[in-house]
Specification:
mainly beta, 5-stranded antiparallel beta sheet
Length: about 80
């Protein structure tokens, strides 16, 4: 069974993450047993085309770290 949730990532531009945290739907691929680190695949932007966060690419792999409120993306690898 797939686990889909919202993680928080920064905008991706020129292969670098920047800006404020924004919510993106992601599929959980792996979760460390303590629940503090996971691997996620972005599956949906969930943002309007007028939003400044238009750089999110579905298919991007993101390592997320739990910060007590949600998973924050710390490293991402964009899909080609």
């Amino acid at each position: 069974m797939e686990t889909i949730l919202t993680i928080y990532v920064k905008a991706l531009s020129n292969k670098e993450w920047f800006g404020a945290w924004a919510p993106v739907k992601a599929r959980q691929e792996w979760l460390r047993p303590d629940g503090r680190v996971g691997l996620f695949t972005l599956i949906e932007q969930g943002l309007d085309e007028d939003d400044e966060y238009e750089f999110y690419l579905p298919g991007t792999l993101v390592i997320g770290v739990w910060d007590g409120e949600g998973f924050k993306g710390v490293v991402g690898l964009a899909a080609a």
